[in-house]
Amino acid sequence: MTVSVGPTPVHQPPNGSGTVTPAQVLRPHAEEAFAAELAALAAQDDRPRPTRWRLSPWAVATYLLGGSLPDGTVITPKYIGPRRIVEVAVTTLATDRALLLLGVPGTAKTWVSEHLAAAVSGDSTLLVQGTAGTPEEAVRYGWNYARLLAHGPSRDALVPSPVMRAMADGMTARVEELTRIPADVQDTLITILSEKTLPIPELGQEVQAVHGFNLIATANDRDRGVNELSSALRRRFNTVVLPLPQTPEAEVDIVTRRVRQLGRSLDLPAVPDGVDEIRRVVTVFRELRDGITTDGRTKLKSPSGTLSTAEAISVVTGGLALAAHFGDGVLRAGDVAAGILGAVVRDPAADRVVWREYLETVVRERDGWADFYRACREVSG
Ligand SMILES: Nc1ncnc2c1ncn2[C@@H]1O[C@H](COP(=O)(O)OP(=O)(O)O)[C@@H](O)[C@H]1O
Ligand SMILES: [Mg+2]
Fold first, then answer.
1. Entry's SUPFAM superfamilies (predicted)?
2. Considering only CA atoms, which residue is closest to atom 5 of ligand 1?
3. d(Cα 168, Cα 261) in Å, to the nearest integer?
4. In terms of pLDDT, which residue wins out, 45 or 223?
């Protein structure tokens, strides 16, 4: 369990005996999971580092995009996509503008934000999760009421938000799903980002951001009906749009890599290269998402769900678990069919029709897909 009060997160043992190591944690933070890569980069990085940065911008980009170091250390790619996007994102963090990662769901906004914070500041945990209920205290500061009542307002009774801690320590703060946060709470970020100051009127004090402070926000550009970003706030950000994977090969590559990583941490069987099943899942997702078959011949209706790369990753990971526990350890059509159905059919009426039509007109006719068609028919009822 991570307790996020105090300057550094503390891993608390569940029963008071011993300490929880990163290896025992279900999902270690990026800076823990990739500690070896980050240390190797820091050791071999001889380019200039902005104040309080753990690495140079070049090394941060290498950490995200992958590469190999002079001593042979291999840096695994975290983000698979255009290099320029990563370069612009990293550079922005070294300026006085904050970074807004924008994109449809599942385009790795959260993932990139976590890895950027880990590489730049060595800590990805200074995080505010944006929801419709995010209060101002989550962005500014709150109070420890026991101390406040006992001793009155003081720095001791103040509970800093992750953003306040990042300002004071010159670190990277993260705000997830910025546009879900109510507009008046969003606006508290304007002073923080323009004046680099967080006033504490109760104490007649302020916290001034020190060098190294910046903020990465993520927002979903499909979030309709939620709070738009005010233009005043938008001006404080450089916006970087994360695209969907451009080619099927790129998407298969992303899914295969991530499933491998996830599978290792869940003790699932290894994924051999170029698994047909991953290719088929990605093909189905892309065709339904694009509303047209890969060969460009058949127009399709798109279902209501997003069918993102992230969902393809979950479907394949779930399929691997089925294959491991109830199959012969080899990923087959029958292992992914139920997952695909669940991802495609979100609206039980309309999406089911779309799915049926796709199955009968496209999947059924496709060479070498007979087993896949059968498996999908079986779960579709
Ligand atoms: N281009 C990409 N490169 C690497 N991983 C990706 C890419 N696109 C999606 N993913 C994977 O998808 C998963 C979900 O991404 P996430 O950051 O939660 O999406 P978002 O915040 O945009 O909705 C992550 O496991 C991430 O590794
Ligand atoms: Mg996200």
1. P-loop containing nucleoside triphosphate hydrolases
2. 79
3. 35
4. 45
78 CA closest ligand 1 atom index:
4
Q: Is 79 in the pocket of ligand 1 (CB under 6 A)?
A: yes
Q: Please write the tens of the pLDDT for every residue from 139-175.
A: 999 999 999 999 999 999 999 999 999 999 999 999 9
Reading phi first (left if > 0) and then psi (alpha if -120 to 50, else beta), residue 283 is in alpha
Say yes or no: CB of residue 103 within 6 Å of ligand 1. Answer: yes
In sequence order, the 6+-apart residues with CB closer than 8 A to the CB of 242 are 81, 85, 101, 102, 103, 107, 108, 109, 112
Q: From the CB of residue 223, how many other CB atoms can be counted at a distance below 10 Å?
A: 15
Residue 379 has pLDDT above 70, yes or no: yes
Give the model confidence (pLDDT) of 236-294 as tens digits.
Answer: 999 999 999 999 999 999 999 999 888 887 778 777 655 789 999 999 999 999 999 99
328 pLDDT tier (thresholds 50, 70, 90): confident
Q: Write down the pTM of the prediction.
A: 0.90
The answer to whether 132 touches 95, Cβ cutoff 8 Å, is no
Burial 123-157 (b: 16+ CB within 10 A, else e): bbbbbbebeeebebebbbbeeeeeebeeeeeeeeb
Query: How far apart are the C-alpha atoms of 170 and 339, rounded to whole Å?
Result: 43
Q: Which pLDDT score is estimated for 348?
A: 87
Tell me how far CA of residue 65 lies from CA of 59, 90, 107, 269, in angstroms.
10, 12, 15, 26
Relative to beta strand 67-68, strand 74-75 is: antiparallel
Tokens standing for 198? 């967080």
Q: What is the pLDDT of residues 16-65, one digit of tens each?
A: 556 777 777 888 999 999 999 999 999 999 999 999 999 999 999 999 99
User: Given ligand 1 and candidates 80, 107, 260, which is best to mutate, with the most ligand atoms within 8 Å of its CB?
Assistant: 107
Could you tell me how far CA 27 lies from the centroid of its own chain? 13
Q: How far is CA 52 from the centre of its chain?
A: 24
In terms of Cβ atoms closer than 10 Å to its own Cβ (0-12, 13-18, 19+), residue 54 is buried
Query: What are the sequence ranges of the domains in the chain?
Result: 2-241, 248-380
Percent of the chain at pLDDT above 90? 78
**Protein residue with its CA nearest to atom 26 in ligand 1:** 108
CATH code for 2-241?
Answer: 3.40.50.300
